[in-house]
Predict the structure.
Amino acid sequence: MICASSHSPCRRHTPCAEFGTRSVPSTILRSQPTLRTTPRRASVLLVVLVVIVLLALGAYTFSETMISEYQAVTMHGRKVESRVLADSGVQYAAAMLQQRFDFAGEGVFDNPSQLQDVLLAESDVARGRGRFSVFAPRGHGGTSQAIRFGLTDESSKLNLNTLAQRVLADQLQEEEARAILLQLPGMTVETADATLDWLDADDLPRQYGAETEYYSRLSPPYAAKNGPLDTLDELLQVRGVTPELLNGKDANRNGLVDPDENDVIYRTAADRAADALELGWRSLLTVHSRESIVRHDGRRKIEVNQPSLEKLFEEVSSEFGDDLANFVVAVREQKQAAATTAEPARAGRIESIYDLIGAAFAEDGDSPAWESPWTTEPGDMRTYLPAVLDALTTQDGLARDGRINVNLAPREVLLGVPGITQSLADTIVAAQQWQSTGAPARGKPDPRSTTAWLLIEGHVDVAKMRQLDRYISARGDVYSGQVIGYFDAGETITRLEAVIDAAYDVPRVVSLTDLTDLGPGITRSQLKQDRDGTTRP
């Protein structure tokens, strides 16, 4: 075809306006872009992949959150369960104390058959089997590096509240109370007076003490309590008392100095060398100690200072016969006759049962009209004295606070008893008898179940016993121990420190401290170990 405009052949043409077709120059055609259809499937796939990744990440995050929440709930649940196990152990120990007069042999001092690895929650898997154990240091005063499955008699320690009460009642002079506190290792005159000021009822500082005027200048300020302590931890508010003095090396408060606690710095180099404060004051002091006024089998004692002499005669006669009953009534009448008006509240009172031992007095004339049927011959005393001390009391009421158990007290505590010298304290500690189980020798009753053994064995005379009687006993009825709740597998535990007052009809928990943050305080192998060293399955 020949284009009309150029009359030359046209390879490419379109319809010409004039002839129906027109020619388009090839250069123009080559300059036009080639029209293509671009596929979008790749970008859509990328968007889909991003969405899938985001959804997967969200699902993973949600799953991780749910798993974490599940683990947290599970862990919380196991903590709650371990706390229930430990609380059950505390109540179980209290129930044992309520029945302690029915126990023979070990009782609650060291009784692994009743207090070690006790199964409460059965399960087919180890993580589900829940148990508790009740434990305490084996040695008296906490000096032994072993544990026993039992409770500690708080009467083996010095009761700070009773000490303050005796000062208030003029039974002790302030200087005597200070001297008692100075027997504690690391105690200073300033800290002793500050402690007594914290406990007394007034706000007047002693010679070296501190009262609210001093504490109000501290940051933050606070007031002196001027009353009895509820826990020993309150001592940390007293001027001069530090955690190192209170706890010694025993950082985890299990009553032992564990191998990893030997390097704890707590005092001067000289004192560390002497190891005088190894376990701190916590092993020597208490704020809860008392004994119930009952016999070895739980029956009430006969009160020799009761108002009715006729009733006194009947009760003593039924126990020991008319001759002894007549003598006890005669002593009461003689004391009433000799009483002065200076102390009307104590007129005619028998201050100690030891006042009846070897006593003699005359009503008229020089020769004694009355001589005690209870002689001071050691052989005679071994026969009658434990029964007399077990059956009679000078106290009214249900319980007596704060006397020291000479069967268990360590030397530092015995030195705080007025009238006990260093040599006598050493003698008593050397004469304390311990069975292979770690429990003090017991009888129902025998000399060791009362303070009679000190007299019978010749460690003191009757005059000394009359002096010591208001301060010492052979047992107490407030007990402390640590209870751990745990499972056969897993690290979740709860450790509680409980003080149980069993001096009355129904034992009650008077102090409960959670020590879980300080660790179990006892190894799993110890929880399973028998006395002979074998490990339970």
